[in-house]
Protein 1
Amino acid sequence: MSDQRRGDRLDQPRAPRNLRLRRVDAETFGRWAEGIARGMGTANFLVYMTLILVAWFLWNTLAPANLRFDPYTFTFLTLILSLQASYAAPLILLAQNRQADRDRIALDEDRRRATLQKADTEYLAREIAALRIAMGDVATRDFLRSELTRLGEELDEAAERRRKLERRQQERGTRRAAGGERLDEPRDELDGDFARDGRYDG
């Protein structure tokens, strides 16, 4: 009796009931809702729906009275369109929510990749800076090129002097053979250079 009175009182909360409803798979229902929303958002749906409505109006207006299943004022058609609108709006909202969830996941993934790329770029920048500092005292390509060019010029000059000396010696040998060279002929500058180098025997 006391339990019945307590249940009838409005200032006391009602005891919970063990009512368990069957849960619907959210993923399956979401895919189904997205399929319907995509179908309703196409030109085919609009064209087919327009054709059905036109046929409905023509049949219930021009057909014999005993064959009209929804006469003027089209009450049944109004009910069908109301049911369609009442179900279409939640289905479209559900599809939009799922798309928003996918967009958020994609945005988080893009942000994570951007963070990793930024970290990699900063690491490479630090490594390049360290290499530049370490190679500060190392000979550069331009320096090596200039040194090789200078050495090549010096070798060319030495080869040219050697050719001149050989021609000079050949001329002296020819003069000696002809008996026309004087023994007290002074040596030229090339002779002195090669004599200092130890490559001229006089």
Protein 2
Amino acid sequence: MERYSCSKLVIGSADDGNGEEAIFVKGTWFPTHFHLVITDGLAAWLCHPSEEEVKQRASQWDLPLSEYLHLSERYLALQQPLSIYAFDDTGDGHKRLSWTFEKEGMTLLWRWKCTKSPDSRKCNVEILDFLMSSNVNLSDKVVRDNELFEKMKVEAEKCLTQSERIANEKVEFESEIYAKFLGVLNSKKSKLRELRDKLSKQENTEKSPREEDTDKSEGFAEESDYDKSDEDPQKDITSSSKDKDVVANKPSRQKRTRLT
């Protein structure tokens, strides 16, 4: 599918080396070749190379056809600041369009011969019509972009307002939840304190009977010892005497000595 371009190129004048003039170049770019219509405002020139001519020119520069067309469109659809453009007479009423560009550190010069148009007025009208149509399309695009921008601006303001409202609601919700949480937490703490007090009282209640039982046991042991100490001492003395007599009356065994 073809593409279109139209650019204003500032070139050096062939008559005056210090002067400059402008030309308008309308390009129609096909997949395998291109067409150029050039005017200086009065006369017009045409450059319609065939597909074979473009292929031959691309092969001379060791470039694929697509890359050659891409570079040509890039430099003719919009003036490049580092490129030098020229539109010189060839001596037979025709012109030669040339431009330079840098590639791999080398300055290259491309040029194409342009024949004088048999109907310059028609070519000028064609270029002006294209420029007017492009200007209208560009104006419409600017208007649409401005409308879209205003619409997006309104939507952005709505989003900002909504974000602020959500942020405020979030703060209020967090404050409310925090207050409820504190209430529940304090209630739980109060219940825990009550349970702790109940457990403490219950432990004290269970501990008191155990201490009384221990006191009673100790008192009973002391009374038993006291009763034993109050028994008749005469019985102890009699028993002791009898034991001694029994020991004294036991026959003693003497060791016999055998005489030889």
Protein 3
Amino acid sequence: MEIQVNHFVHTLSLNHPKQPLHSHHHHRRTAVVVHAVSSNPQQLIKSGTVIAILPKDAAAAMNEKGYQLLDIRPQWEREKSRVSGSMHVPLFVQDMDNGLITLLKKWVHFGYIGLWTGQYFTMMNPDFVDQVEKIVPDKSAKLLVACGEGLRSMMATSKLHKSGYKNLGWLAGGFNRAVDGDFPEVEGPEKLQYATIGGASYYFLKILILLQAVGKSNS
């Protein structure tokens, strides 16, 4: 981040040689650049501020490096499968509003997404950071933030970083990229890598797994 800011300052001085570096205009523009770099979740990971950890390396990160696993999936995904001992604070919660506009959105969501994936219509959990702070008040603690596919957890790391957590890990690719044995102890009726899948796609997956098993037995 420091290199990018210094480069910005150098470029600014070349383009505007008469503009003093201590001017209010310069400081305001530099501050904007710093904020943009530090709050972008992809940049946090790319810069190493948030550590990307693959599912196959997650157990070692927790056992040897002291990371605590924070599962930010919705409750209905976690109920299907979860890592034993993991903490849970959902980044998204089910939207229970029954106003006309929300109901219309829910119908559209069900027709295009919900029927196939089984996902509920959700909203951002407004108390996400507060709930994390209650269970992990020490902001120097090492947290490995995880979701199903890695996108929601990427958003969560950005929010947690802004609130002061500095030792954050991101489960790269999410639980979907995990294979049997990556996490020694898993609870729930489904495999961890399939917990995000629901609706019609879940039954389609079951058929594919069955056909694959039949194919192996016949070979």
